[in-house]
Amino acid sequence: MNMIDLGSYQLSIPVGSPPKTITTAQLVKGYDGKYFKSKSDSIVFWSPVTGTKTENAKYSRSELRETWSDGSLHNWVYPDADNYLNAKLEVDQVPSSGKIVIGQIHAYESTEPLLKVEYQYKEDTKTGDIVAKVRNRFDDDESKVYKIVEGVKLNQTFSYVIHLSKGGKLTVSVNDTDWSNRISETWRDKPLYFKAGVYTQDNTGYTSEGGKATFYNLDIDHNKS
C-alpha cells in the first residue's frame, strides 16, 4: 500500500496525442509506468523534454490533478474552505533550463494557473531556489515571481505547503519558511483545483533530458469548519 492515497487524483502523462489520462480507478488499482513509478513509500514522476503536451501547453508533464473518489473532477471556490496541499519530495533531475513546477493551483477551463511552485536549479551554485509564481488577479497576463528559499540541492528532501484561506490569503511554506500574500477578489468565484508532480519547464534536448521528482507524501485537505 502506497503512503500516498491516490484515491482523489487523476494523472496526466506525456505520451499520446492528446496526452494520456490515467483515471482515479486505475491509480487506485496500482498503476505503474515509465512516467509514474509507484513504490511502497514514494512515487517517482518523470517528464522528458520530448514528451507530448496538453492543449495550449509548451511543456510536458507527469502530474496529478485533484478529483473526487469516483474520478470526477474536483473543483472548488476558495471562500468555501481552508484549502491545503502538503507535499514532501526531492527533485532528482532537471532539464537544461533548470526549472520544474512541482505544485500548482489551477483555474478550471483556464490556461493560466493562479500559482505555480517551481524549483529553479542554478549550475553555478549546484543548488536550487524554490519560488512561487503568482497571478494576483484572474485577468493578470503575467505572474509575479517570489523567492521562498534557496540552496536546495538535487536529491535533498524538502516539504512544501500551499494554503489558500477562506479570506483569500495565499501562503506557500517551504520547510519552515513562509511566504504569503492576499490574492485579488477576482479569483473568488473561479473554480480552482490543485495539481502536483512534475511539469518540466523545457522542451528541447534528448529524450534522456527532463524533470524527475520523488514524492514521499502528498495530501490535500479542504477544511470547511
Automatic annotation (TrEMBL):
<keyword id="KW-0456">Lyase</keyword>
<dbReference type="GO" id="GO:0016829">
    <property type="term" value="F:lyase activity"/>
</dbReference>
<dbReference type="Pfam" id="PF08787">
    <property type="entry name" value="Alginate_lyase2"/>
</dbReference>
<dbReference type="InterPro" id="IPR013320">
    <property type="entry name" value="ConA-like_dom_sf"/>
</dbReference>
<dbReference type="InterPro" id="IPR014895">
    <property type="entry name" value="Alginate_lyase_2"/>
</dbReference>
<feature type="domain" description="Alginate lyase 2">
    <location>
        <begin position="4"/>
        <end position="222"/>
    </location>
</feature>
<protein>
    <submittedName>
        <fullName>Alginate lyase</fullName>
    </submittedName>
</protein>
